[in-house]
């Protein structure tokens, strides 16, 4: 949610920008498109999806083009090696669900012969969500023009004290995934004993009657580290002393060239869900 300070800064920046007439042309070198991989395997029933595309120049706003004439294989530690079915150009599917304790990776063969492989990801169990609730940020706040007010989503869950676990949460409002950069929610439980109570994982403007669904996912420490860097690069940027955004090293590399890596991360997760509705 935007605060008064955010709006004030935006207005000041707008005045500064409109008062300048000099045009600065940036000479950004063209780089070779990189393979972009989106996908995971979970223990939920239903189709698992892997999507391949090519990166586009930094200032280009066009839709990334899909990868054509590629092959994707799903490999696990119990001798499974399955060729995934391509039903849409660059998008591959399997009906196989992941199993707790197994490790998974994918191999991608491109049209030009390059072969990429992800590091194995172990599918760890995940604990249940004991309770989910949605509460007003400020009960005195008036509704906006759309009848919305600021709400936050809180969860309570048991955490095994003898284990070191990592989690990610996905939040759906009226069955639509909230997918802005600052909606990324993940955590580690290093300093938690047995239960986390009323932990805030999401906040936004919503209205009475909206349904909220939360997916709680187990993730590996490696994926947690990737998400941490991703969050820093996409949310905590823009200040005078912030480092410029840079490609984030995932877990998928060219077998013949360790310096040639794909953008994205293939991960394995167990998933549990909880759902509620905003009543007031």
Strand content: 35-45%
Order of helices and strands: HEEEEEEEEEEEEEEEEHEEE
Structural class: mainly beta
Shape field: globular
The percent of residues in helical segments reads 10-25%
* Assembly context of the chains: single chain
Q: Nearest-angstrom radius of gyration? A: 21 Å
End-to-end separation = 19 Å
Enumerate how many helices there are, as a single number. 2
Written overview of the protein:
- The chain has 280 residues and is mainly beta.
- It has two helices and 19 strands.
Question: What would the keywords be for this entry?
Answer:
mainly beta; 19 strands; 11-stranded mixed beta sheet; 5-stranded antiparallel beta sheet; disordered N terminus
Summary of the model, kept short:
This protein is mainly beta and 280 residues long. It has two helices and 19 strands.
Secondary structure blueprint with pairings:
Elements: H1 4-18, E1 35-42, E2 48-54, E3 71-76, E4 81-83, E5 85-88, E6 91-94, E7 103-109, E8 115-118, E9 121-122, E10 129-136, E11 149-158, E12 166-173, E13 176-177, E14 185-188, E15 195-206, E16 211-219, H2 221-234, E17 249-254, E18 257-269, E19 271-277
Parallel strand pairs: 1-18
Antiparallel strand pairs: 1-2, 2-6, 3-4, 3-7, 5-6, 7-8, 7-9, 8-17, 10-11, 11-15, 12-13, 12-14, 12-16, 16-19, 17-18
């Amino acid at each position: 949610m935007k605060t008064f300070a955010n709006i004030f800064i935006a207005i000041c920046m707008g005045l500064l920008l409109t008062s300048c007439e000099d045009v600065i042309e940036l000479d950004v070198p063209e780089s070779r498109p990189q393979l972009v991989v989106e996908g995971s395997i979970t223990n939920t029933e239903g189709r698992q999806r892997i999507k391949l595309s090519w990166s586009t120049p930094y200032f280009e706003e066009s839709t990334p083009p899909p990868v054509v004439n590629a092959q994707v294989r799903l490999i696990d530690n119990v001798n499974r090696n399955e060729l995934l079915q391509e039903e849409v150009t660059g998008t591959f599917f399997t009906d196989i669900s992941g199993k707790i304790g197994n490790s998974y990776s994918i191999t991608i063969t491109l049209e030009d012969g390059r072969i990429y492989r992800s590091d194995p990801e172990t599918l760890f169990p995940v604990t249940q969500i004991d309770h989910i609730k949605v509460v007003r940020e400020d009960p005195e706040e008036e509704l906006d023009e759309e009848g919305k007010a600021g709400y936050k989503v809180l969860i309570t869950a048991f955490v095994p004290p003898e284990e070191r676990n990592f989690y990610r949460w996905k939040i759906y409002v009226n069955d639509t995934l909230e997918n802005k950069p600052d909606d990324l929610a993940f955590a580690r439980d290093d300093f938690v004993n047995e239960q986390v109570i009323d932990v805030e994982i999401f906040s936004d403007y919503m209205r009475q009657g909206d349904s909220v669904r939360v997916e709680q996912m187990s993730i590996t420490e490696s994926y947690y580290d990737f998400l941490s860097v991703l969050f820093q690069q996409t949310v905590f940027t823009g200040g005078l002393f912030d480092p410029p955004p840079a490609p984030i090293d995932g877990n998928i590399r060219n077998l013949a060239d360790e310096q040639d890596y794909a953008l994205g991360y293939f991960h394995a997760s167990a998933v549990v869900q909880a759902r509620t509705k905003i009543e007031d």
